[in-house]
Queue: 2 jobs
Job 1
Amino acid sequence: MEEFARLFLELGKGLGITLSLFGLTLACSIPLGFLGSQVSLSKNKPIKFIYTIYLTVIRGTPLILQVVFMYFGINIILIKLGVDPRIDRYPAALLAFIINYTAYFSEIFRGGIQSINKGQYEAASVLGLTKRATTMKIVIPQVFKIVMPSLGNEVITLVKDTALVNIIAVTDLMYLTYSAVSRDVSIMPLFVAGIFYLAINSLVSAVLKRIEKRMNYYRI
Amino acid sequence: MNMLEVKHLYKSFGTTDVLKDVNLTLEKGEVLAIIGPSGSGKSTLLRCINCLERAEKGDIILDNIPIATEKDGHTEYLKEDELRTARLHLGMVFQNFNLFPHLSVLQNLTLAPINVDKKDPEQAKSEALILLEKVGLSEKADSYPFELSGGQAQRVAIARALAMDPDMLCFDEPTSALDPELTGEVLAVIKDLAKEHMTMLIVTHEMGFAKEVATEVCFMDNGIILERGKPQELLVNPKEERIRSFLNKLLSV
């Protein structure tokens, strides 16, 4: 029991990094993903083409590969170029996560926007609403309701994906867990880590459920 | 005074000519019903007048504002901002209502007055309540569209169009998506508007209604207006054989 408490405190020190990685990725990827969906739906062919390449590469390769690339790959390139400023472990991980999750959110939003009935745009337009007002007042509120379940799935996945950053020695919850396992030769840290991740996701699920419930006042 | 003037309007989708030389004038206070078989271009005509579709040739003059003008064989519309303002002279009621599902009935009515006309929210609200009373739905102000029957939804949609105080209303088959027993309540609202001399352009399949409410009726077929006349003449004793066979088909079902 004492060991349990000690491990809780020890591994808990990694929670800050895990949670900040989670929070910052979400805070950046959701708005960026929405912007990205606008690119996907735009009529500018060259930009759309480049964006499609980005989506294909990011969604077609493992996140862990992207994390390793963002740290080791970029630093090797910087060294070869003789550039001094290096990219640090945590920013590299965060950047890789934002780039990755933006791609997924972007596709979720694109699907949501495309499922809005054409009649909604027409009604807004005959009432004289500008494009901007239509997006803000008509499209976004409805899109969020539509995409909430898929968005929720990604958010829960993100909590667990943060564990990948231990590959570049970011001292997150998983990294500390791994260190404790190999040091103590004990499976105890694995259970403690599991409890932490479960606790975070229970909280996240509760919040998501609440948001979905709040948007339940209407049906599309 | 002409509220609407459409001259030599032409529109195609791909290789299909949907409108071929449509000419139409509508005087202030007039109620014009457009009838005709499906695929004859009725809805497209309405959508071109509303600028939901862009005509390729011809002119559209709305309330003395040339919103679309043909130059060198090609129709040019006003710039986006000017067009947006000009279109406010025109209200539109859709077949599928197109209410905003995330907004309450009252918010559906006040959205455009507040955002487009920059009306004071309280004033917009009280005006909206008057309109809801007019269409007999005061008690539904705080309901959401999914809680309404089709007939109620369409009456809200009419009130929403009226909230922008248009000079003219367009209806695109306003009762076609409704259960038969619900069409009456919508038609009654349109009838009331006709009594107030609202200028209206109504695409409809309700011949009885057209006969009763319209000042004139147009029969469209194959992208042109085949005949226009008083409802009693056109619907009872049409000159064109095409119209006779269309009306007979309707009666025989």
Job 2
Amino acid sequence: MKDTVIEEAMRVRGVRGAAAVGASGKVSASNVDAAELNEFFELLFRVASPSDRYSAVGAVKRIMVRTDEAEVLSLLVAGKEALGVVSEKWRPMAELCADLKALLPGV
Amino acid sequence: MRTILRDLGSVSGVRCGYVVRNGELLASTFTAEQAAALAACQDLARGVAEGLALVDRDWEEVLVDLGEASLMVLSIEEGFTLATLAAADANVDLLRVVMQSSVRQIRTMLALPPPVPTPVASVQPSAPPQPAAAAKPESVPSGARPAASPQQPAPTRPAAAPQQQAAARPAPQQPAAARPGTAPQQPTAARPGAAPPQQPAAARPAAPTQKTPIEQKPAAASRPASGQKPSSAPQKPAVAAQPAAAAKAAAEKPASAPPAQSGRASEDASPLLPKILELLTGSIGPVARVTFKRGVSRWKESHTPTVGNLPSLVEILAADLSSDEERRWFVEEVERLRR
């Protein structure tokens, strides 16, 4: 995943931070300061992988978590990589997702 | 619990659901053939919850897009979740509102302590907070309802400008909503904070001859673009200042309310039900049809559907309202219907 994706993600309204998770399952680039959030994205990536793990219900394309800290933590799976995003809670999930999807061809 | 899940299944697009507490499956509407799907959903939800625990985050909602379906999980309390598996094209906002209502029902049913409110827990404005009138003040409690509002046209929300409090019926030329409690001398005061697609009878001016001030405003200025219900919370001192216990007591009024006039107590309540639905719709929007139907079913299971037993129905339905103020308003309005 290109580092520019993170820059582009940061321009999406309501986005506070973004992190790219590589095929290795590790964050390859991030501007999320909180180390625990980068770890969380790595963990979410492991939860979402492999793509056929949840074949009974589909394949995980996206996970969005609304926390109690006025934030939404999202992971958008793009092939064998993923983009983790920390965003403001006020931004509707559907809108945010649509904006982020546009950054990730094939998602 | 299963009834709640069954009712959730009536929401368009919902396939099945389950409730898990501390790893134990309490109820499920997954069939035996869907056991693998249930296991996958539980596995997925557990994985996310465990990850959140590792980073020391409490959570309210998890939404997983599975391509052909979506899994929505709501936290009831720690280790206790309600989840639904819905079609990919299901109305997630509507589902969220209905599930939040179900969570409240479960909490009420199990007498769980109320969750600590978060400032904007269920609000999804489509624009960042702004100082302008259209913005939601940060101090507004989480009572605002997200999905009910977007489906309601802006002009039907006269209470968006809380300072415009006027008597509804006595002065139709000033039809802006009046708040019960702030204007106790107005027995037919309209509920603050929301006006339904069809105005509740109690709030409807006899012959509205002019638009409410809010109707005269551009829609964009009167409410956030997302349709989030503007709240009057910041300017409702009389009600907001009430201790929660007092408000709760008011909400519980039907249980101790005097019975309907002796001649009516044994009357069939059916003619009043549409009016009660109308009141509820005014409060929580179109989703009221779902919660009303569910509430009436529960009521009829345990009570004879008479006017005298309406307080029990009110108690069930009031649990779905998001604030003490709304609950009190609802209780009072139904009480008026009973008389």
